[in-house]
Amino acid sequence: MEGLIIPLNHVLILASLLFATGLAGLMFRRNVIFILMSLEVMLNSAGLAFVAAGTAWAQADGQVMFMLILAVAAAEVSVGLGLVLQVHKRFKTLDMDQAHKLNG
Amino acid sequence: MLQNIWLIPLFPFVSSVLLILTAGQLPRRLIAIMGAGSVGLSALVVLAVGMQFMESQTPYTLTLWVWMQIGNFAPGFSFYVDQLTVVMMSVITGVGFLIHLYSTEFMDDDSDYSRYFAYMNMFVAAMLILVLADNLLLLYLGWEGVGVCSYLLVGFWYKDPVNGAASRKAFVITRVGDTAMALGLFLLFTELGTLQIQPMLDAANSRWVTGDTIPAIAALLLLGGAVGKSAQLPLHTWLPDAMAGPTPVSALIHAATMVTAGVYLIARTHGLFLLAPDVLMLVALVGLFTLLLAAFTALNQTDIKRILAYSTISQIGYMFLALGVGAWSAGIFHLMTHAFFKALLFLGAGAVVHCLHHEQNIFKMGGLRTKLPVVFWSFLIGSAALAALPFTSGFFSKDQILLSAFELHGSTGISTWVGPWLWAGGLVGAIVTAIYSFRLVFIVFYGEAKTEPDRQPGWRMAGPLSLLCVLSLIGGYFVLPLESVFPAAAEHHVSHLIEGISISIPLIGVFIAWLVYYKRSLPVEGFTESGFGKALRNFWYSGWAMDKLYDTLLVNPYTGTANAMRGEWLDKIYHGVVSLCQGLHALLSKSQGGKMRWYATSMVFGLIVLVTLVGWAS
Amino acid sequence: MLLLNLILILLIGGAIAWWSERLGTHLPRLIAVFVVLIDLAYLLNYLAGIPLEQLSVVPDAADPSSWLLAYQLDWIPRFGISFQLAMDGLSLVLILLTLVLGVIAIISSWNEKNDRQGFFQANILWTLAGVIGVFLAMDLFLFFLFWEVMLVPMYLLIAIWGHEGKAYASMKFFIFTQFSGLLMLLAILVLAILHHNATGIYSFSYFDLLATPIESGMAHWLMLGFFIAFVVKLPGFPFHTWLPDAHTQAPTAGSVILAGILLKTGAYGLIRFTVPLFPEAALDFAPTAMFLGVAGVIYGAVLAFSQSDFKRLVAYSSVSHMGFVLLGVFAWNSLALQGAVMQMVAHGFSTAALFMIAGALQQRLHTRDMSKMGGLWHHMPRMGAVALFFALASLGMPGVGNFVAEFLVLLGLFAVNPWMTAAAALGLITAAVYSLIMMQRAFYGKPDTDLVVTDFAWLEMTAMAIMIVALVWLGLYPQPVFDMVQPVLDSLSNVVSSTSAAVGAQ
Question: Which residue of B has its CA nearest to A29?
Answer without folding.
Answer: B597
